[in-house]
Prior knowledge:
GO terms for molecular function: amino-acid betaine transmembrane transporter activity; antiporter activity; choline transmembrane transporter activity. The chain has helices spanning 2-26, 33-53, 59-81, 88-107.
Amino acid sequence: MLADKTYLWLLGAIVSEVIATSCLKASNGLTRVGPSIGSVVGYCCAFYLLSLTMRTMPTGVVYAIWSGVGIILVSVIGFVFFKQTLDWAALIGIALIMAGVLVINLFSRSA
């Protein structure tokens, strides 16, 4: 039961961080109030939920999953909403990050 909550907290932390990072981009260097507030609130939520996750999971595993999935989602949002493109080297790097997150989740006993 606790493990289920742990993964929900981690998912919430990832979603909050992705929203906060997207708001940070939209804030135009913190010059737009709405997105700036969204960024601060999103990061506060993300770190709170991340701290709950770290109560029961190893820090390295939590951070690897949080940052890896966050990088992938932020890259997709950057492409879709901000019309940003990635070159082949970036795409290969992101694919390797995805592979690492999968290896941790599928094969690590620490997760």
